[in-house]
Write a structure and sequence with these properties.
The complex is a heterodimer of chains A (about 270) and B (about 80).
Chain A: E1 5-10, H1 18-31, E2 36-40, H2 48-51, H3 62-66, H4 72-75, E3 77-78, E4 85-88, H5 101-114, E5 117-121, H6 128-135, E6 139-144, H7 148-161, H8 166-169, E7 176-183, H9 185-189, H10 196-203, E8 207-212, H11 215-223, H12 227-230, H13 235-247, H14 263-267
Parallel strand pairs in A: 1-5, 1-6, 2-4, 2-5, 6-7, 7-8
Antiparallel strand pairs in A: 3-4
Chain B: H1 2-9, H2 13-30, H3 34-51, E1 61-68, E2 71-78
Antiparallel strand pairs in B: 1-2
The chains are: A alpha/beta (about 270), B alpha+beta (about 80).
Chain lengths: ~270, ~80
């Protein structure tokens, strides 16, 4: 049997960075040499294709595959830069009910034969798209901003991960990792933002990474590159790469990379290309 | 990559973003998902023609589409079977 790992990137709340994180994690894993497939489960509102810069090359999608209108191999879009990274896009023209449990199960089972890592980008909410994105996962990355509504929604999602997934139904416990995104160390230090420890304490999920708020994330999405590919020196990119090391089992202490704002940083603002 | 870097370095990623969105939305607003159907049919037609001459594995056929502004290109890669030794 294959040794593929299916990981869902989920949060409940929208806009916290699931898609950005999915793209960054999938491409960081691919850079490590693994065969990686990122799946967009946001049927009707897909965006992973845009963030990964593949939007002009999408022909078939997840719903076509689930309905047997296209094979998985036909629907996979290969990344322009990394030839071991693929995207399975969501459908843009249908609604979330177009996905069926059996259909998703068979898609994931087949992908397990071809890939080392399958990264599922969950839609926001707790409806069918979100529950199917997590259903066949082996592990979950829970994305939260250091902000009250986001943390609360994550708690709800944790409940679903422990109830509505195959792992949970078989009596297992879904391994979960907390990823805090859009973190501003300055504001947390001043007490104007929940600290990393606060969020970890409330959710009781082990931390896999803290991604600092960074301008590079928007720049990367503008040009359609995962931030881990567009700018390796970016603090956000470094934080994602470290999170992926931890996902791969390395015992790295969680650090919070920040933009260097010292005199040296100011003098040498431009980064080496 | 170089093209992206060119804009990125000059701080003009926003214009890349706008351009990408214009192309994408122009397509999505007119599109009704018939692309996929058409391409599926084309694929079957082409496969049939090639099959007249040789045996090919349907899985060894890759379709690549690229929509850039006014032009959409469709590339079809067919992995030919090894010639017998």
């Amino acid at each position: 049997m294959s040794k593929a790992t299916v990981v869902v990137v989920t949060s409940g709340k929208g806009g916290v960075g699931k898609t950005t994180s999915t793209a960054a994690i999938a491409s960081a894993l691919a850079k490590e040499g693994f065969k990686v497939c990122a799946i967009d489960f946001d049927v009707g509102l897909r965006n992973l294709d845009l963030i990964m810069g593949a939007e002009r090359r999408v022909v078939f999608d997840l719903v076509n595959v689930v309905r047997g209108e296209a094979s998985i191999k036909q629907a996979l879009v290969r990344d322009k830069k990394l030839n071991n990274l693929y995207l399975l896009p969501a459908s843009q023209t249908r609604d979330k009910d177009a996905l069926t449990d059996e259909g998703v199960a068979s898609v994931i089972n087949e992908l397990r034969m071809y890939f080392d890592w399958i990264v599922c980008d969950s839609p926001a909410g707790i409806e069918r798209g979100a529950t199917l994105a997590m259903r066949y996962a082996d592990e979950a990355i829970i994305v939260s901003n250091p902000e009250v509504s986001s943390v609360r929604d994550c708690d709800r999602i944790i409940g679903l991960l422990d109830a509505k997934t195959v792992v949970a139904e078989e009596g297992g416990r879904m391994p979960k990792h907390l990823m805090i995104t859009r973190f501003d160390p300055e504001r947390a230090k001043n007490g104007d933002m929940l600290s990393v420890d606060d969020v970890v304490e409330i959710l009781s999920v082990p931390l896999i990474g803290v991604i600092p708020e960074s301008k590079d994330v928007l720049k990367a999405s503008n040009v359609g590159l995962p931030v881990t590919l567009s700018d390796e020196e970016s603090p956000a990119s470094k934080a994602y790469v470290e999170a992926v090391q931890r996902l791969l089992g390395e015992d790295l202490p969680v650090t919070i990379p920040t933009e260097k704002k010292g005199l040296f940083g100011k003098l040498f603002k431009g980064r080496a290309a | 990559m170089n093209f992206m870097n060119f804009f990125a370095r000059r701080g003009e990623t926003a214009s890349v973003a706008k351009n990408r969105l214009q192309i994408l939305l122009a397509h999505e607003r007119t599109g009704d998902g018939s692309d996929a159907k058409l391409i599926s049919q084309l694929r079957e037609d082409i496969l049939e023609v090639v099959r007249k001459r040789m045996n090919i594995d349907p899985d060894a056929v890759r379709l690549e589409m690229d929509r850039s502004g006014d032009i959409t290109t469709l590339g079809i890669d067919i992995e030919l079977p090894q010639t017998k030794n």
